[in-house]
Known about the structure:
By secondary structure, the protein is of the alpha/beta class.
Amino acid sequence: MRARLAITVLNTVKRCYHSQEGCKVGLLGVPFEKGQTKKGVAAGPEAIRKLGLVERLEEIEGKLDIKDYGDVCYKIATDLKEKDVPNMKEYAHIAACNQQVSKTVEKIINEGRICVTLGGDHSLGVGTVDGHIKAKGENICVLWIDAHPDLNTNKTSSTGNVHGMPMALLAKELSDYWPYLPGMDWQKPVISLRHIAYIGLRSVDSYERLVIDKLGINAFGMEDIENYGIRTIVDMALNKIDPESNKSIHVSFDIDSLDSLEAPSTGTSVRGGMTLREGIQLMEIIHQTCRLGALDVVEVNPSIGSEADVKRTVDAAIHVIAAALGHSRRGLSPRSGVLPLQTFPPKYQEI
């Protein structure tokens, strides 16, 4: 036991040491909105970039190596256009887009970068988690930060919107509850619900509650955050899903996990969510593990609310991303590390 603990600590120290040399980050935009019905969420990646995401990240001490891979583009195969799955709206788009997302995320992580995916609606989580799994040989755990569990199947969903189904598609324990999904053979539900934890839940459908209770999923709602505090909740979640501290962490952060006063421009906002301060602290804790492998920030919808609402929401998303990648609220030291000396003009002797 002590030997295993020593190895875990050593590996963590090594990861943290190398992280000081300059973290490599890959940005990926997924302007996709077919997983739900409200127009505008596809503009999320552009809005986040335009408000200065890269410039904010470049201010982080230690200098990040940032590469923007642009936006995902996809084509629907001819045979897939004719396929349909009951109660899964825009199925062909979901399957085709997520396949391309998975390939791109896998490529970014294999290049040694933390993949930061800008959504888009949360249905893209199928592709981002799948790509992470393939890059890391299934050795990952997932923190799903969301007001909703996104744990419906096509049989239990009341809307048919796939942004409420990604976790059910990913979990191997639920694979028998799906029909055959044409065009999705590239995606195998291999991650166990034992390696998944929810934080921020406060809007759970009845069948989702049934699955959480029956399968013992690690689910922390807002009342848990209120009772224990966000640091304790994150520590509890990580201890459950990654007890040996050796897995690559995938954080899928739905902006509606924040209270609607903090992030009003999103399609399924629910009052009583996390403060931005709690969201930032959550991501700071993840950064301190030195094990973040991928981060999704989804459901930012610039077409909802006033200009001020949109700016507040996008700014919140940027704060979350920056915290995950090492921004410190304590302030940043100058990269020179030297306090400039006072200089005085030369004095001339009068003759």
